[in-house]
Amino acid sequence: MSTKKIKEILVTTPSDQAVIVQGWCRTKRDSKNHAFLELNDGSSLKNIQIFIDKSKHDFEDLSKISTGASVWTKGLLVESPGQNQAVELHADELAIIGEAPAADYPLQKKRHSFEFLRDIAHLRTRTNTFGAVMRVRNALSYAVHQYFQNNSFQYVHTPIITASDCEGAGEMFQVTTMDLNKLPLTEDKQIDYSHDFFGKEAHLTVSGQLNVETYAMALGDVYTFGPTFRAENSNTSRHLAEFWMIEPEMSFCDIEGNMDRAEDFLKFVLSYVLENCQEDMAFFNQWIEKGIIDNLKSVINSEFHRISYTEAIDQLLASGKKFEFPIKWGEDLQSEHEKYLTEELYKGPVIVTDYPKEIKAFYMKLNDDNKTVRAMDVLVPRLGEIIGGSEREWDYDKLLSRIKAAGLNEEDYWWYLDLRKYGSVPHSGFGLGFERLVQYVTGMQNIRDVIPFPRYPGNAEF
Ligand code: 4AD
Question: Residue 1 has what pLDDT?
């Protein structure tokens, strides 16, 4: 007899057929003659109820089963007389696989705060909320691949270790095998990286973009989806030091095509989750963010507003609102500004384009005004920036001067410049922070609660 997942069992028609279930006990109700167990195996939010008739069988010591214990049971699947479930299992055999002594098992039946659960990240997936978050996360990553594969994009695995800074912001973690207590020095007392593992300075990547661009120049439409690292000291609910990023890159594509793609892609993944994670989404709708299902549906059915950065600044100045950080042309939008644009003014997603070149990365295409670049950020209500992208500078001389102006080392980018030397074409792409997407879809307030083991300043536990 095959062991089935609880999710499958709960939707089968009961006909007193024998089934095997394995899972972790969520609750137990015990009386003189019988006991009820609620078992969960992570396949769904729902538990299966196990009915134990003590008079019929000689079960192992039931008192050893407490919340968190793992249990194997075999019995008949029958229609349940209870109101909360259609089927239940009447146990014929039952075995405790692993006990979870109630005296020190940290997850009790009461509600625990998300802060507390972060300290036991190795166990928190056994709660309803984290189980649901991780199932939705799984579905979203599948939807990402499905979208790109269906649209003839090729998946490229870009390196984690790199010698170039993609964003040019200097927020990288260094990778070295040198003994930090005995660093070799050059004659002029600088660290001599020729002795290091790679023979030069190396870091964890902040983005796979530069590498994936090389593939767009050969394979056409490509994407990378992998971990990225930022050593920025941001202790916010939207920043992680290690996060996953989805980065499509399209050749023969300008900023308009880039915006169309970003909008189409977001709508696809949102629709996918609403269709395939109904139970978990109903949970978020009820307990985490009321109305989130309707909210996501309205995004799917709306057209994203498209405005330039200059228009956005004008609208913010004209709003008459008192912002904590007063805005003026040349400065980056803060989350309060993003909130005003998406939640009050446009009441939906907004794509802001053509930012001042000084506040954007060196690789973005310079506009004819010589002041702004063809950047595009997608802002959404509740969260703010979810996507950052641009048309790329594909002219060799302009790119070189931008690299120099940014104070970057020209030699580190020789291969990236080569793409502009040989068969250069207009191309564009964007990056979607995967955890921001999971946050947006589930309504979870803190980004640290949508990744299995969050890394942030002062924390690399687990
Ligand atoms: O705007 P960013 O920095 O863009 C890039 O890295 C480009 N190379 C992408 C590209 O064009 N291929 O980051 C892109 C997205 C942001 O919009 C945000 O969703 C997410 O990555 N992000 C973060 N997510 C979590 N924690 C952080 N510290 C993040 N920094 C950026």
Answer: 67
Distance of alpha carbon 190 from the chain centroid = 39
Q: How far, in Å, from the CA of 169 to the mean position of ligand 1?
A: 12
Q: How, if at all, do strands 384-391 and 242-251 pair? A: unpaired
Q: Is 246's C-beta closer than 6 angstroms to any atom of ligand 1?
A: no
Residue 50 to residues 17, 89, 90, 99: CA-CA distances in angstroms?
14, 5, 6, 17
User: Is 248 near ligand 1, meaning CB less than 6 Å away?
Assistant: no
> Is 222 exposed, middle or buried, given 0-12, 13-18 or 19+ CB atoms closer than 10 A?
buried
Provide DSSP, 175-228: E--S-TTS--B-TTS-B-GGGSTTSS-EEE-S-SHHHHHHHHHHHSEEEEEEEE
For residue range 327-358, list pLDDT tens digits in order. Answer: 999 999 999 999 999 999 999 999 999 999 99
Q: 190 CA to middle of ligand 1, Å? A: 32
Q: In what order do the strands lie in the sheet with 154-155?
A: 154-155, 221-229, 242-251, 427-433, 384-391, 372-380, 350-356, 305-308
- Identify whether the C-beta of residue 341 lies closer than 8 Å to the C-beta of residue 354: no
Atom of ligand 1 nearest to the CA of 387: 17
- The stretches in the chain having pLDDT less than 50 are none
Judged by phi (left if over 0) then psi (alpha if -120 to 50, else beta), residue 46 lies in beta
Given this model, what pLDDT does residue 2 score? Answer: 65
Query: Does the beta carbon of 130 lie inside 6 Å of ligand 1?
Result: no
Q: Is 435 in the pocket of ligand 1 (CB under 6 A)?
A: yes
Distance (angstroms) between ligand 1 centre and the Cα of 194 equals: 31
CB 370 within 8 A of CB 345: no
Ligand 1, residue 241: give the atom nearest the CA. Answer: 28
Question: pLDDT per residue over 397-410, tens digit each?
Answer: 999 999 999 999 89
Alpha-carbon gap, residue 196 to 194, rounded angstroms: 6
The pTM of the full predicted model, rounded to 2 decimals, is 0.96
Which amino acid, one-letter code, is at 246? I
